[in-house]
From TrEMBL:
Protein's organism: Zhongshania antarctica
Active site positions: 72
Protein name as annotated: Diacylglycerol kinase
Reactions it catalyzes: a 1,2-diacyl-sn-glycerol + ATP = a 1,2-diacyl-sn-glycero-3-phosphate + ADP + H(+)
Localization, UniProt: Cell inner membrane
Enzyme class: transferase
Membrane topology qualifier: Multi-pass membrane protein
Residues at which ATP binds: 19, 31, 79, 88-90, 97-98
Function: Catalyzes the ATP-dependent phosphorylation of sn-l,2-diacylglycerol (DAG) to phosphatidic acid. Involved in the recycling of diacylglycerol produced as a by-product during membrane-derived oligosaccharide (MDO) biosynthesis.
Transmembrane regions: 59-78, 99-118
Record: residues binding substrate: 25-28, 33-37, 58, 72, 101
GO aspect biological process, one term: phosphatidic acid biosynthetic process
Length: 124
């Protein structure tokens, strides 16, 4: 198999940026969970600036929200690949999708725990 020719330097950076925007657009158009997480992030990110009392807390609050979005994008990519390969039910296809879903759940639990610990520290 031959390697696909690719551009280098600044052209490569612009191509990567364009592909990234294309991926975000696809996630917005086709993934309900992604849209829900973006809606929640639009509320939580400004709240993080208020809730966090220092740069470290704000970074944890913001970072934990962004991690959920990143993991959701990866999960959506896994689902797209599995569906591209075959739409028939197969144990490994189900396992791949379940593992992606578990990753999203764990990222959400991480986010929730960060927010809970910082909120408890601030208010109690």
């Amino acid at each position: 198999m031959m390697n696909k020719p690719s551009r280098t330097g600044v052209a490569h950076v612009f191509d990567a940026y364009r592909y990234s925007l294309k991926g975000l657009r696809a996630a917005w158009q086709h993934e309900v969970a992604f849209r829900q997480e973006i809606a929640l992030a639009s509320l939580l990110l400004p709240l993080a600036l208020w809730l966090g009392t220092n740069a470290s807390e704000r970074a944890l609050l913001i970072g934990s929200v962004v991690i959920v979005i990143i993991v959701e994008l990866l999960n959506s990519a896994i689902e797209a690949i599995v569906d591209r390969i075959s739409t028939e039910l197969h144990p490994l296809s189900g396992q791949a999708k379940d593992l992606g879903s578990a990753a999203v759940m764990l990222s959400m639990l991480l986010c929730l725990s960060c927010w809970a610990m910082i909120a408890v520290q601030r208010f109690l």
